[in-house]
Amino acid sequence: MNEIVVDQLAAALAKWSPRLRVVRSSFEVPAATTDRRVDALLDLEGGWCLAVEAIGEGYPRDVSAAADHLANLLPALPEGPVEPIPLVAARYMTEPSRALLRERGFGYFDSSSGSLHLQRGDLVVHVDRPAQKPAKRGRPVDPFLGAREQVVLALLLSDQAWTTGQELAATSSTSTFTVSTTLDELERQDWIESKGTGKLMQRRLARPGALLDAWSEAWRERIAKGRVPQRRYYKFSNPVSKLMQWAADNLEVLGLADRTERLPWAFTGPAAANLVAPHLTAVNVVDIIVPPKTLDLVETALELEPVDQGPNLAISERGGAALMARGRSPSPQLHVGWIANPFVLYLDLQDGRGRNKELGQHLRETVLHI
């Protein structure tokens, strides 16, 4: 048991209301018919009783296990004047973990931020503050960066099928080490589930919507911080379909700097998404993805000049999963052309421009089915 967290919970309760002051506490309370125990029972001034399970880091997998533990023990606890309210307390608790506990009707306490949630009938105590991540030991693992992003996309493309680490390494074109570190983080966030052991262990997506939402949020933050090199241009062409055809014709024959292979590229953004999931009547800008460190090559070959106002063409340098699993244009109006994977299209529609978010939701419902 994490006694420090329980002490911090008691202090926070007294701070928020005198009626929440702890008047009696019992620790390591045994449950009948089992040798398992509840970390603490706290009797409060206002007639409330809390059954507390105290843990360290509150990621979804951790709080789910703690909630299951409490749910199993509550019926076997010693009878008291009031029914105990189950509460999970942690040194740090993520936002998805808090949402998970609220959905199950559990209370929670995050000692890093002071966030608190309790409900008894119609009475709710809710103190919501941003989670304060503790200092990480070792290098942080961001599952939505670089090669790890490719593992995430491979999982989303797997349609929740069971898959091994070696299979994921092959489909994501990454190493088994990259797959392992990515899956460890995704499992800690309770986005995937596993079965088996060792090399025979298999994983599959448990919450694809939550994973896609988290990836989308990480992508928006990356865009907001200017971490995606992009230039904007104006090329006289009307309608947009003609501009896309012109770009496709030129990019298809464009080789890399050493001229040993053709340049990989793909349309993205609303113009591309509208081909995959028609929804908007008009699109004004064509977005293109090219590999890192090739923007100068493309700009020179296509004889483009950057503009500050009125662009109708935007080209971004992207690595990771951006060009993975791209497909050919489904539109007969675009004779040649690559379209980014629908999951990448969805991410790029979360930029807040025009009706992009609306188109993204339409794509999610009709193509991604998440």
Automatic annotation (TrEMBL):
Q: So which domain of life are we looking at? A: Bacteria
Protein's recorded name: Transcriptional regulator
Q: Which organism is it from?
A: Pseudaquabacterium terrae
